[in-house]
Design a protein that fits this description.
This protein is 33% helix and 23% strand. The protein folds into two domains: 2-142, Leucine Aminopeptidase, subunit E, domain 1 (3-Layer(aba) Sandwich), CATH 3.40.220; 153-463, Zn peptidases (Aminopeptidase). The protein is elongated. The strands form four sheets. The protein has an eight-stranded mixed beta sheet with strand order 7-8-10-9-13-17-14-15, with helices on both faces. By secondary structure, the protein is of the alpha/beta class. The protein has helices at residues 30-39, 76-92, 110-120, 144-165, 173-181, 192-197, 201-207, 249-252, 260-275, 320-332, 347-353, 365-377, 411-420, 455-463, and strands spanning 2-5, 14-22, 49-53, 60-69, 97-101, 137-140, 186-190, 215-221, 228-240, 279-290, 302-304, 310-312, 338-343, 358-362, 382-384, 402-403, 427-432, 438-439, 449-450. It has 14 helices and 19 strands.
């Protein structure tokens, strides 16, 4: 899809002209005012739409009126969602050209508009013989610099969404490594033997049950005299069966998405080189599968992480924190200023926050608050969870330094405290995207499937 900036979208020849309606007001189009408002009493409540033909009276074949709701409640998030709804409607109608003539919006809407267009226009039809229909050209009067910047980010989101939507037969650890090597960055791939020499006993234990070899991926974007050095780590479990503590079949169905954190990191790194910030960025993924093969690690096993701490395996389905433990140790030794990890880590976070927000914890209040603010500004929601020391009681082991799981109560916070044990000298934040990385049905501007969670927030945070 191409977004074209023009001065007067209302006069553009197109299949659909999209106009907005605030409750109690009128649109910029008299045709819409006459038929939608006066005759059919369309009120413009947020999320409602009204479609009418123009009867050859103007250049657009049809007008789509999108309800913006009450003007004093309207915000950038609502604009993004309304735009996404319009694009979805246009795709359903197989429209090729769509012009947006928004009026009465009292904030710069270019960025959220572009996110709405890019997110809603996405589909994963790689394996379909009949491909999905898409709008080809969008016309709008908006700030071009902001549009082009947001376009790059939505393209990075598409990379992330495609990867997490791929079946595990394709998105293997080796495939992630291959993709990472093709990004044009300084990239090092560590195999099993190299990880053994580095002492990554927690990560390698998880990988033992799979025929797919583990791949530890380190991508690096460098710049002269960086003002900051940041490492972003993505959980890279390419398929999670639960290991010997195997998941029920219904819970395993979407476990191809357990590498959504890794997909976020790869998507982010695809855009970083193009933006060329004066920030050094390290993208790190400990990629493997968690399978119940004949060599699989077992409940009761004692593992030694890269920093020498020992872990008693209480449950093999708490594998993500084990792979992250060694990845965090590795990042902590790089001399970076900050580490941010993203992971589909706990069902407990989903219980606490549902699929409307990701949970975040960290060892530095300023970092956590800055990430939350950046996410909010670009349309993602992060909610800070507590990491009270009392939660650590349930992680105690009688035979090792700690267990890999604790009580089911406060599970997301307990997982954060576990991870904290592997960051000794660097500012760190952990983002649990379990509830927001993958939707089992269409929601808002998103279709069913991967959402590219974290990409907007990470790119904007790095650029900020």
């Amino acid at each position: 899809m191409e977004i074209k900036i023009i001065s007067n979208p209302a006069e553009q020849e197109c299949d659909i002209l999209v106009v907005n309606l605030f409750e109690g007001e009128k649109t910029t189009q008299e045709l819409a005012n006459k038929y939608a408002i006066e005759e059919d009493k369309f009120e413009g409540k947020f999320g409602e739409t009204y479609l009418l033909p123009t009867y050859g009276k103007q250049k657009a074949r049809k007008i789509l009126v999108v309800g913006f709701g009450k003007k004093d409640e309207f915000c950038p998030d609502k604009l993004r969602k309304a735009t996404g709804k319009a694009i979805k409607k246009a795709n359903q109608m197989e429209a090729k050209t769509v012009a947006f003539d928004y009026s009465g919006v009292d904030f710069c809407f270019a960025e959220q508009f572009t996110y709405g267009v890019g997110i809603a226009d996405y589909s994963f039809d790689k394996y379909k013989t009949k491909k999905d229909k898409h709008v080809e050209t969008v016309y709008v009067n908006a700030n071009e610099d902001a549009v082009r910047r947001a376009e790059k980010i939505t393209k990075a989101m598409k990379v992330s969404r495609d990867l997490a939507n791929e079946p595990a037969q394709y998105a293997t650890p080796s495939k992630l490594a291959e993709i990472a090597q093709g990004l044009g960055l300084d990239t090092k791939i560590y195999d099993k033997e190299e990880c053994e020499r580095m002492g990554m006993g927690a990560y390698l234990a998880v990988a033992k049950g799979s025929a797919e070899p583990p791949k530890f991926i380190h991508m690096k974007y460098s710049t002269p005299n960086p003002r900051k050095k940041i490492a972003i780590i993505g959980k890279g479990i390419c398929f999670d069966s639960g290991g010997l503590d195997i998941k029920p079949a219904s819970s395993m169905l979407t476990m191809k998405d357990d590498m959504s954190g890794a997909a976020c990191v790869i998507g982010t790194m695809t855009a970083i080189k193009e933006f060329a910030p004066d920030v050094e960025v390290h993208g790190i993924i400990a990629a493997c599968e968690n399978m119940p093969g004949c060599s699989a690690y077992k409940p009761g096993d004692i593992l030694t992480a890269k920093n020498g701490k020992t872990i008693e395996v209480d449950n093999t389905d708490a594998e993500g924190r084990l792979t992250l433990a060694d990845a965090l140790c590795y990042a902590d030794e790089l001399g970076v200023d900050e580490i941010i990890d993203l992971a589909t880590l706990t069902g407990a976070c989903m219980v606490a926050l549902g699929n409307q927000a990701a949970g975040i914890v960290g060892n530095d209040d300023n970092l956590v608050k800055s990430v939350i603010e950046t996410a909010k500004a670009c349309g993602e929601r992060y909610w800070e969870l507590p990491m009270y020391e009392e939660y650590k009681e349930s992680l105690k082991s009688s035979v090792a330094d700690m267990q890999n799981t604790g009580s089911r109560w406060g599970g997301a916070s307990t997982a954060g405290l576990f991870l904290k044990e592997f960051v000794e000298k660097t500012k760190w934040a952990h983002i649990d995207i379990a509830g927001v990385a993958y939707f089992d049905k269409a929601q808002g501007e998103f279709i069913k499937g991967s959402t590219g969670a974290g990409v907007r927030a990470m790119i904007n945070y790095i650029l900020k």
